[in-house]
From TrEMBL:
<keyword id="KW-0418">Kinase</keyword>
<dbReference type="InterPro" id="IPR036890">
    <property type="entry name" value="HATPase_C_sf"/>
</dbReference>
<keyword id="KW-0597">Phosphoprotein</keyword>
<keyword id="KW-1003">Cell membrane</keyword>
<dbReference type="GO" id="GO:0005524">
    <property type="term" value="F:ATP binding"/>
</dbReference>
<dbReference type="InterPro" id="IPR050640">
    <property type="entry name" value="Bact_2-comp_sensor_kinase"/>
</dbReference>
<dbReference type="GO" id="GO:0005886">
    <property type="term" value="C:plasma membrane"/>
</dbReference>
<dbReference type="InterPro" id="IPR003594">
    <property type="entry name" value="HATPase_dom"/>
</dbReference>
<keyword id="KW-1133">Transmembrane helix</keyword>
<keyword id="KW-0067">ATP-binding</keyword>
<feature type="domain" description="HAMP">
    <location>
        <begin position="324"/>
        <end position="375"/>
    </location>
</feature>
<keyword id="KW-0547">Nucleotide-binding</keyword>
<keyword id="KW-0808">Transferase</keyword>
<dbReference type="Pfam" id="PF02518">
    <property type="entry name" value="HATPase_c"/>
</dbReference>
<keyword id="KW-0812">Transmembrane</keyword>
<dbReference type="GO" id="GO:0000155">
    <property type="term" value="F:phosphorelay sensor kinase activity"/>
</dbReference>
<dbReference type="InterPro" id="IPR003660">
    <property type="entry name" value="HAMP_dom"/>
</dbReference>
Length: 599
């Protein structure tokens, strides 16, 4: 159960909706299919039961009618007084016997000729008279045959009501005869009333089963006549013995309530139907093969299954497109949200007037508010950056002014008027540039000119001689760069390099600026004293923190910190700063700046 919930929770809304629609369509489809098959099978079974019951009733009625007609024909002969005289005439009274037999013979022959199913007519009585009438002239009998000693015919002399004997051989015939079914009609004498003679109508073995077959029928029957007491049978020639034996073993045919049931024999199914006959102790049993009907039901079931499967596939296809049509606006909304997550404001254009349309309209309104808020935040951020840049710039100006005044003081004390004039001009140009707040950017050429003036001021201030080497690529002199980018690096080189190096040392500063693709690489190198490990540690932490954390060290050493903050505010994370300084190497500071920036 947990795994099913986990599986369902992992599905997308499209797959869930598709699954729900599939189940909602599959359940009624199965119910309709099952119900249709059930009622179809039920109606077919009811129809077949009714049909076979009606058929077996018709066949039983045919048998009864046939035997009643035979009974009537025999009664006409028996009730004639001359036949009664023939019955009562002893065998030794030859004249009278011949007279009456001449009367009886044509009437019995008429019965024989009108019923083609009759093979032989046999007259027997208790005085020993035997009269035989056969359809074939060549069929002779043993006239000295003792019928009372025959296993079958001895029962004739015990019969008091019409009886039907199961198939047996004509053992009295000269050629051993054939197998026949005997209908025994007792002859009642008038004076005195008694039964001393019998007419045995011997039918061909298959005669009864043939006369009962319908001309046409939707149900094909196998029929058998079954005697209730002995369970002896009269069967169709093509009916297997094992089949009727199975019927007799599985069902109580003597039960008056038994009408229909189903029998399975050797993998075949039969509908067993029973109908009682008018003749004493005999039933007509019909067996209707169900395989043909079940094949039809199976074919119908397959057809239903094919139609159901095709309908289900069609429902799946329609459900897929329906789900896609329903969720299309949601997919558009999801796409817009994914783009929003990437920083792209894209409105969802999908006109629809429902709950999803309300969500889309609300989302588009939220985008408008976000864009407005983003602009407000952007403007506020820009104002904050500009404010901080101005503050950092304001910190740079007094620092420059203090340095310039110290240099002027030193020259004034030396009473070198020419040097003093040159120094004042340098300070004037630098001051003019410092108070120019129209833009934070200037061409690289102006930055280089500023460095020249700055180095002149430092020369007079510290009273040290040093060599400056400028290696600037001419193509980038007009490129806009942030003001006062190189000045803190040069000042740091003088402060940590020259002032801490011996007086007699040959100090040199080299400034290198090159273009590298879409970047400008600027290097400030000096051969003075290396930066102390403590200072390097502070500078390294500054670079790693992105300028967000200010160590107490930079409360007094603001030059590099201000530079780093101004670069971070201007270029965000699109710049690099690197410093190399050790006892075994010179000091080098490298800046990598974007060639172009947004306004």
């Amino acid at each position: 159960m947990i795994s099913v919930r986990r599986f369902l929770s992992s599905l997308s809304i499209k797959k869930r909706l598709f699954l729900i629609l599939t189940l909602l369509s599959l359940v009624p489809l199965i119910l309709v299919s099952y119900t249709a098959q059930y009622f179809m099978l039920r109606s077919t079974t009811d129809y077949l039961n009714h049909l076979t019951e009606q058929l077996i009733m018709d066949q039983a009625e045919k048998t009864n009618v046939y035997l009643q007609e035979l009974e009537q024909n025999l009664n006409i002969i028996i009730n004639d007084y001359r036949f009664q005289k023939f019955v009562n005439t002893p065998l030794k009274d030859d004249p009278n016997h011949s007279t009456y037999i001449n009367y009886v013979q044509p009437r019995l022959a008429h019965v024989l000729n009108t019923k083609k199913e009759i093979a032989t007519l046999l007259y027997l009585d208790s005085t020993g008279k035997v009269y035989h009438l056969s359809r074939a002239i060549t069929d002779g009998i043993y006239y000295d045959y003792t019928f009372r000693e025959d296993q079958v015919y001895e029962k004739v002399f015990q019969t008091r009501v019409p009886e039907l004997f199961p198939p047996h051989p004509q053992s009295y015939a000269l050629n051993n005869g054939k197998r026949v079914v005997s209908y025994v009609k007792p002859i009642v004498s008038f004076n005195p009333p008694s039964v001393n003679a019998w007419i045995v109508v011997e039918l061909n073995e298959s005669a009864l089963t043939q006369i009962t077959q319908p001309i046409t029928s939707e149900a094909t029957n196998l029929i058998a006549f079954v005697e209730r007491g002995t369970k002896q049978t009269i069967m169709q020639p093509d009916m297997p013995d094992i089949l009727i034996d199975s019927v007799k073993n599985h069902f109580d045919l003597t039960n008056p309530g038994f009408k229909q049931s189903t029998l399975i024999e050797n993998g075949q199914s039969f509908l067993v139907t029973k109908q009682s006959l008018a003749i004493n102790n005999w039933d007509l049993v019909g067996l209707t093969p169900l395989d043909k009907f079940r094949k039809g039901v199976g074919a119908t079931r397959i057809t239903t299954l094919v139609i159901g499967t095709a309908s289900f596939i069609l429902i799946l296809i329609c459900s897929y497109f329906l789900v896609h049509a329903i969720l299309r606006p949601l997919f558009a909304l999801k796409k817009g949200m994914v783009l929003l997550g990437s920083g792209i404001f894209s409105k969802v254009i999908y006109p629809i007037d429902n709950e999803v349309g309300f969500l889309i309209t609300t989302y588009n309104g939220m985008l408008d508010n976000l864009q407005k808020l983003e602009k407000e935040v952007w403007h506020a951020t820009v104002r904050e950056k500009e404010k901080e840049l101005l503050q950092l710039q304001a910190q740079t100006n007094p620092h420059f002014l203090f340095n310039a005044l110290e240099a002027i003081e030193a020259i004034a004390l030396s009473k070198d008027r020419e040097a003093l004039g040159e120094l004042i001009q340098c300070v004037s140009r630098m001051l003019r540039r410092n108070i120019d707040h129209e833009s934070c950017f200037a061409p690289l050429k102006e930055e280089i000119d500023y460095i020249r003036d700055f180095l002149n001021v430092q020369h007079y201030k510290i009273n040290r001689t040093f060599r400056m080497n400028l290696n600037i690529e001419e193509s980038i002199l007009t490129v806009q760069t942030l003001k006062f980018t190189l000045q803190p690096l040069v000042e740091n080189a003088i402060k940590h390099g020259i002032l801490r190096s011996p007086q007699n040392g040959a100090f040199a500063i080299r400034i290198d600026a090159r273009r590298r693709g879409n970047w400008i690489r600027m290097k400030v190198w000096n051969n003075g004293a290396h930066i102390s490990p403590e200072t390097m540690k502070q500078l390294t932490e500054l670079l790693h923190s992105g300028g967000e954390e200010k160590s107490p060290y930079f409360h007094q050493h603001t030059g590099l910190f201000n530079l780093y903050r101004r670069l971070a505010l201007t270029y965000d994370n699109r710049f690099r700063m690197k410093m190399i300084s050790s006892q075994s190497s010179d000091t080098e500071m490298t800046l990598l700046l974007p060639l172009r920036i947004d306004n």
